[in-house]
Records
---
Amino acid sequence: MIRIAGAGLAGLTSALELARRGAKVTVYDRASGPGKGSVARYAGGMLAPWCERESADDAVVTLGRDAVEWWSGVTAVTRLGTLVVAPPRDRQEVARFARRTSDFTPVDGAGIAELEPALGGRFDQGLHFTKEAHLNPRQALIDLTMASRDAGVSFRWATEAPAGVTLDCTGPAANLPGLRPVRGEMAILQCPEVEITRTVRLLHPRIPLYLVPRGAGIYMIGATMIESSSTRPPTLRSISELLSAAFTLHPGFAEASILEIGAGLRPAYGNNLPRLTRHGGGWALNGLYRHGFLLAPAMAKHVADTLLSETSHEHPRECPAA
């Protein structure tokens, strides 16, 4: 029997991968149901390894390139790519982004208008990462739980994990050496007047923005990174900057309704790559940070390979490609 502490993204993907290979798995979580206690509910859900390479290690591309197919077997995935744009005054940001990434198609103003008519006439150049995709994190956590249950995983909700679990996936609560909390802030907007179908990244020197459609005129917006361990709600300045960036993307967002504003602390190691490490008498998977949905499938396979192998490894194990 494999016992997992934490029914967040790391715990659920690991449970499913282990169960698919015939293991008997029980997952314990303090929350009352799927996704309710996971910081992954504040994620963008972007499956964008080539875009992420702009500020991340090569391992993000190596490990993340198969994530779209893995998630497509669990939940709905929108495969329309990622569109990267910048205001005309910041067009040098597009060139800089292009130098640090790959697997994109350059697009001019007409190309942007063809991909996203709502953005026609607003931007004169951009990059289209055609193989990227996105999903709805909250629905994905529910679907992941259901898939795990169908595969034979047992869940103990509103229950503290017993001592000596096989795999600890409790995020910052695990208190592992070298692990730090990184703050993520987001807002969910409803704006039926603006129709955007794919993930859009707006490059801006002060606050780079990503916008992810959720369907029915609903959008999630967030900033790429906030180095803070504060647990306080988002500040007025922070949310104002997010909303200002959304207005820069399209002025129609000035009339958007704000459905939700949230913040969560996501676990990260110094190199921002996840690690599978020895912890107590078992293992710990942690540090998924902002690449969570992108890297979780590869790390779950790594967990299954390790836990089900005949030989144990006493040394820390990071990303398989790190």
Note: The domain at 82-130+180-267 is CATH 3.30.9.10 (D-Amino Acid Oxidase; Chain A, domain 2).
---
Amino acid sequence: MSDFSKKITALREDRGWTKTYVAKKLGISSMQTYANYEYGRREPDFETAAKIADLYNVTTDYLLGRPAKEKTASDEPLTENQKLVAYSIDPDISDEERQDIIELVKIAMKNRRRI
């Protein structure tokens, strides 16, 4: 049994749902098709995998056993103070360049704390 199979089985059982119920919610005509996903005999196509993830309110990465992407500082929008600092250096730089400046400042602050 694959990680995918184990995860969808556990998710379904945690909710107290039957395989028939899940198959109907996913628009799969045969409960056996869904059951084969849980038994590890078959794998869903991308569209069905996405529907399964949506049904259980998880990501496809979770279902596939991939680690969650760590959030980085560059994923977060700049604060107003950070924008002002970057703007004061050069008002004509791009948002990407501003983000690079902020990252450099964060690295410098982090290294300063180590001393």
Note: The chain has seven helices and no strands.
